[in-house]
Please model this.
Amino acid sequence: MILRKRLTAMLLVIGMTAGVIGVGASGVTVPKETEESLFGGKKDTIYFWYTDDALSDYVNSAAVNFGEANDVRVIPVLKSGREYVEAVNYASLHDEEQMPDVYLLSNDSLGKAYLAGLAAEIKDSAVCTPEVFPQSALSAVTYDGKIIAYPYYFETSAYLYNKTYLEDFVKERLKEEAGAGAEGEEAEEAAEFSVPQEQLEASVQELLPQTMDELLSFADAYIAPEAVESILKWDVSDIFYNYYFIGQYMVVGGEAGDDENQIDIYNLESIECLKVYQKLNQFFYIEPDMVTYDSVLQDFIDGKVVFSVVTNDAIARLEEAREDGSFPFEYGIMTVPRISEALAGRSLSVTNAVVVNGYSGQQELANRFATYLTTEYLDNFYTRTGKTASSYHAAYENFWLNAFRSEYEKSIPMPKMIETSNFWIQLEILFSRVWNGENINDLVRGLSEQMMTQILGQPFTEEYIEEPQTEPEEEEEYIDDGETMDDGEVTNQ
Model:
C-alpha cells in the first residue's frame, strides 16, 4: 500500500507449542511425519498466513487456545509481505498440504484475491453484521455484493491535540475574564482563580475546532508557549493524512470501492475542498520534502506542535513516551474537522481482514477460526499488537482509541478496483501540486480523465466545470502573539 510504508520483509518466526507450529518466512516447514509424532496422531489441520510480526505472539496464542478447545491444529505461518497475494496463489495451486486455508489480507487487495479464487464468499454468517462490525468494515470486505472476508483490524486518521496546552490556554482566558475591571480584593481573588475540572474539560471541548475556519481562528487567537513552533503540522507528503479533505466527494468505486460505474472525481465539491487545503499553506507552511510522519509525531512529543493528523499507532508511541518521561503532557484525539460549514471531511481507512481460501479443503474449520480470531479472541488486542480491532466486541484499553473508532465508522474504505490501482500515486502527486499553488480545476479534471480513460479503455474528456465567482480575498499572513511570520510558524516575544 502506498499510503503507509508496508513491511516488505519479515523476520523468521518458528514457534512450537502444544497446539501450534509457527513456520517462518524462509519457507522452513515441519514434515508431516514430525507433526504427527509430536502431536500424537492425526488432527484436522489448517494453516493461517500473515505478514506482520507484531501479531505473532497474539495469533500463536489464539491458535493454541482454539486448537485445544476444538481438538484441531492451527499452524500460523509468518510470510514476507512482498508479492504476498502471488505467494498465496502459488501455494494454493502447488502446495495442497501446506497452503493457507485462512490468511490475513488488507481490504484493497481483496478484489484481486476474489477474482483469483483465493477468497471464498462468507455465506449465512451471523458474524458479519452491523451489530458486530461498523458499516465501513463491512463495506471494506464486500466485493460484487458479496462478503468475502472477516474484518479484523483497521487503520484510519484523526486529529491529535496537546490537551495540556489547550487547558492552560482556557485557564488563562477564564482568569482574564474573571479579573477584567476588578480592583482591590476582587483583583486578588481573580489572581487566585482556579477552574473546576469539569468546567475545564467542557471548555476544552468547546475550543476544539469543528471546521478548518475555526482552526484558523484558533491559530490567530492562540498565545503559544515558548516551545511551540507550529499550531498545526502533519505529513503533507502522504495521501493517507490528506485524504479527508476530499474523502466525502471524490468517489472511486462507491462505498465498497469495487464498482467502476461509480466514479466521480471531477466535481465542484472536490475542487472547493482542495481550495481550503491549498489555503492552509499560507498559514501553516510545511515543506513536504522536509517532513515525515515520524518527525511530526516526534515534534508533537517534544511539545512543538499543538495539532496534528495521526493514525491509530500514535497512541502506543505517545504512551511509551509518557512512561519514559519524554512526553510530559496530556493529549487528546478528535475526529477530523469539517472542511467548511458546507463541506464535510471524511477520512480514508484500511481494514485488514481474515480471508478463507477458496481452494481450502477445510473451509468450515477455517471459517470457525476466522470467526474466533476476529470477534472472540480480542482481549488486550491493542496492548499486545498495537492494532485496533474492527469488531464492536473489542474493548479499547485506551479511552482515546474510541475517537479512532468513531472516525473509522464514518470513513471511506480504500477501494479495491484493479483498474484504478495507480489512483493513489496520481492523487498524491495532485495534492503536492495543489499545495504548491497550481490550478486546482485543471489538476482534478486531468486526474479524472486519466482514470476514466483507464477504466473505459479509450480517451475520455471531462466537460469543464465553471467555478462560482467569488470576491478576491486580501492577502493574509499568519499572526501569533503579535508577530507576523512569513513561513506560517509561531514565534514568541
In short: The chain is about 40% helix and 15% strand. The longest strand covers residues 150-162. Residues 16-157+349-413 form a domain with the D-Maltodextrin-Binding Protein; domain 2 fold (CATH 3.40.190.10).
